[in-house]
Amino acid sequence: VRAKRKINADESTLDVAVLIRMMLRSLLLALATSRCAGDGIEDSKAADDAPLWRRVVDAVPKRLSTLTLTEQRDRMALWQRGIHALPENVDVGTYARHARLLPILRHRGGADCSEQGCDVGKVDYGALTRKLGPDFAEALRENEREHLKDCAKSCEKFYCGAAPSKPWQTRSISMGSVPPEDFAQEFAFPLDLIKVTQEPIVSKEEAARAIALAREENVDINEYTSGKYKLGGDWLAKMDKTRNWFNTQLEENIFPAIAASFPEVVTNVSTLRAHSVAMLKYNATHPRTDVHIDNGVLALTLALSPQTDYEGGGTFFEHLGEDALVEMDAGHATWRPGSVRHGGHRVSSGQRYIIGAFLLLEDRVEHVRRLKNRGAKLRQKGDLNGAIRHFEWALAINGKCATCLKDLSELRSSLADMEPQQRNEHLKEAEAFIRRSLDLLPSDSDALFNLGLVLSKKGDSKGALEAYEASAAVNADDVELLYNLAMKYEEANRKEEGIQAYRKALKAQPSFGKARCNLGAALAESGDLDGALVEFLEAVRYDPSSPTPWQNLAVLYHKQGVSTVQGLAQCASKEAAVEISRTASHALGEADNAWRKVMDLVDDQRTKQETVTRLAQVLQLRGRAVAIEDPAAALPHFLEATQLLPTEPSAWEALAKVYHIVGDEVNSKKAGARLGVLRSLAPQR
Fold first, then answer.
1. Cβ-count burial of 21 within 10 angstroms (0-12 exposed, 13-18 middle, 19+ buried)?
2. Which end of the chain is less crowded, N or C, counting CB atoms within 10 A of the terminal residue's CB?
């Protein structure tokens, strides 16, 4: 509420100031024009009929003098948000009140905006080919071949056909300061390009039928990864019944409505292609997606579940902020350019089903997107130079491609690790690229996160922490971000803030084993061993095949066992000693099991040998604790310790003593003899 009030107050101040400046400029222009014509205001014929004040008023353009102050403010509010044309039969004030919920366009970065629009520039591919050479030209031809293949494949599964466009009642939302990566000029950026239906595009009954069909096709039991998160759902290409239902909706309403929304880009319905389509299921265990862009010139989100079926949810457009979610009831949809950053917002309870689709246009090849995709594939194959070249080509086509700059930054950061001799140079370029990306889109949480990574590599912990904090302010439950932020807090000796950041990461993703391990370690360092034990046990439960949580668990139990055994020295009675020995034996038994698990999981010989040493130490301590109550029961522990560490004198010394206590002098002497040999071989001090 405070933020909205501040924006409105700023608007009022700005509107009045701008209007005064516009009136003064118009007046001066009128005066200058009159002088140039040889007729000064005071010398004109009108001087005989009207006073000077009236002639001043007449010099001001009538469109300003006839608008009320409220109308002037409404028009300025619309212009500030890039709205230069109103839908037909819409009241200006009503539309402006809706627009005030949107952010004021940043008139830096993104595009060079003015009252006439934004200069996103037309691409001259001929000039670029002459500049960048034959490899670039071949890459464009490969884009065209890929595009034709993808469009043809789309028609094998999804509706392709001619139909008249069908205007649909939608509201429009700004896509922020960064233009679409492809066809920005054709989209007439910065017109509001995110469209949200005001009337359902699909009836609630049909939406419910789609969910029922998908459940028949086992959509509920499938799971796949989307960025950092796992989602329920499946691809419609594998779901015949659900796909047939969706194709009917495409033909009857969705494609005709999308064509009507973007007549500058969609020449007719027959060019639209549904390239990749999935049904997604959100719930408490699969709550959200990461913030991302979609792999198509256009993208569609179709809500299927009634809002009463779940808590939370909605579509989060990063540039609008987390408080401006686009929430849709069953049957409603949003369509937009694919390159706008967005994500599925967290569902805390219930179930939310949607259909998401990436759309292509048969007569328009997205060269920027396809060059980026090919660059990403080359990077995965290890061809970093080829990847850099493709990202640079994409940036040459669209100099305001924020994701191109992020890709180049990530590559330079990776090269810094691979080429130590050029590390500083690579990191310098990585920082330059990511800062250029942030100049275009300052609210990009991924770019802020990447800036934090780069600054951390450069040794700038303070700058990295600030970048992570800025990223968290935009995307407050990104688990990797919160994890890195917590570690930076710990480096800065802000321990409690680090613990809270780990807890936030785990609230967002309870299965995040590394965060659990670090939280446990932080709690242990603060003296909360019970809290640490809880986190280590949970880490083992979620990630049983990783040695790290087992190591942490073993160390904690080992420490508890040592502390307990040390308490034996203060015992005044055998009963008290037995009670302490049992407690110690339990903790050391758990440490024993954990160290054995680590031995099974690690491959590195050095780590394995260190684990063997730790296990032998635990066995000796466990034997000592058990011997308080039953010396004979302690023998197996001491024996195994000598087997694990056959050259360790202390293990043989302890074994010899225990044999003596139980009356086995033969074996006691054998152990003592072995001890003597080892001591004789030890270097003289």
1. exposed
2. C
425: its two tokens: 């140079």
Question: 177 and 255 in contact (C-beta within 8 Å)?
Answer: no
CB–CB of 184/193 below 8 Å?
Answer: no
Strand partners, 101: none
Whether 628 shows a pLDDT value over 60: the answer reads yes
**Mean pLDDT confidence for 415-438:** 95
Q: Taking CA 399 as the corner, what is the angle to CA 398 and CA 402, rounded to the nearest 5 degrees? A: 90
Residue 242 CB neighbours (<10 A): 24
For residues 335 and 357, give the distance between their C-alpha atoms in angstroms, rounded to a whole number. Answer: 9
In contact, 482 and 502? CB cutoff 8 Å:
yes
Across 87-105, average pLDDT: 54
- Helices 445-457 and 402-418 pack at an angle, to 10 degrees, of 20
CA atoms within 13 A on the CB side of 570: 6
| Alpha-carbon gap, residue 308 to 293, rounded angstroms | 28
Higher confidence at residue 177 or residue 443? 443
Q: Which two tokens stand for residue 136?
A: 């670039």
Q: Place 574 in a pLDDT band, splitting at 50, 70 and 90.
A: confident
Strand partners, 230: 225
Mean pLDDT across the chain, nearest whole number?
83
Residue whose C-alpha is closest to residue 118's, from 87, 85, 82: 82
Q: Is the peptide bond before 190 cis (omega within 30 degrees of 0)?
A: yes
- Per the listing, tokens 């024996």 go with 639
The string of DSSP letters for 198-261 reads SS-SS-HHHHHHHHHHHHHTTGGG-EEEETTEEEEEEEGGG-HHHHHHHHHHIIIIIHHHHHHH
- Beta bridge pairs of residue 353: 281
CA distance 143 to 366: 8
User: What is the reported pLDDT for 150?
Assistant: 96
Q: Has residue 516 got a pLDDT over 90?
A: yes
Asked if residue 473 has pLDDT above 60, the reply is: yes
**Which residues, at least 6 apart from 403, have a Cβ–Cβ distance to it below 8 Å?**
181, 293, 339, 372, 437
CA–CA distance, 147 with 297 (Å, rounded to integer): 12
Most confident of 141-145, 480-484, 647-651, 668-672: 141-145
Burial of 396 (0-12, 13-18, 19+ CB in 10 A): middle
Are 327 and 313 in contact by the 8 Å Cβ rule? The answer is yes
Convert 303-339 to b/e letters by CB count within 10 Å (16 or more is b): bbbebebbebbbbbbbbbebeeebebebbbbbbbbbb
Q: Please write the tens of the pLDDT for every residue from 182-195.
A: 998 888 776 789 99
Find residue 317's DSSP bridge partners.
342
Backbone angles phi, psi at 173, to 5 degrees: -125, 140
Across the range 422-442, mean pLDDT stands at: 94
Rounded to whole angstroms, the Cα distance separating 528 from 503 reads 15
The token pair that represents 113 in the structure block: 């905006």
Nearest alpha-carbon partner for 642 in 669, 619, 664: 619
How far, in whole angstroms, is CA 540 from its chain's centroid? 26
0.90 exceeded by pTM: no
Q: Is the pLDDT of residue 683 over 90?
A: no
- Integer Cα distance of 579 and 570 in angstroms: 13
Full 3-state SS string of 515-526: HHHHHHHHHHHC
- For residues 277 and 236, the answer to whether their CB atoms sit within 8 Å is yes
Handedness of CA 62, 68, 71, 73 (dihedral sign): positive
User: Cα–Cα distance between 345 and 318 in angstroms, integer?
Assistant: 11
pLDDT at 195: 95
Query: How far apart, in whole angstroms, are the C-alpha atoms of residue 654 and residue 435?
Result: 63
Report, as an integer, the average pLDDT of 159-178.
89
Looking at the DSSP assignment, which residues form a beta bridge with residue 679? none
CA-closest candidate to residue 254, choices 208, 303, 300: 300
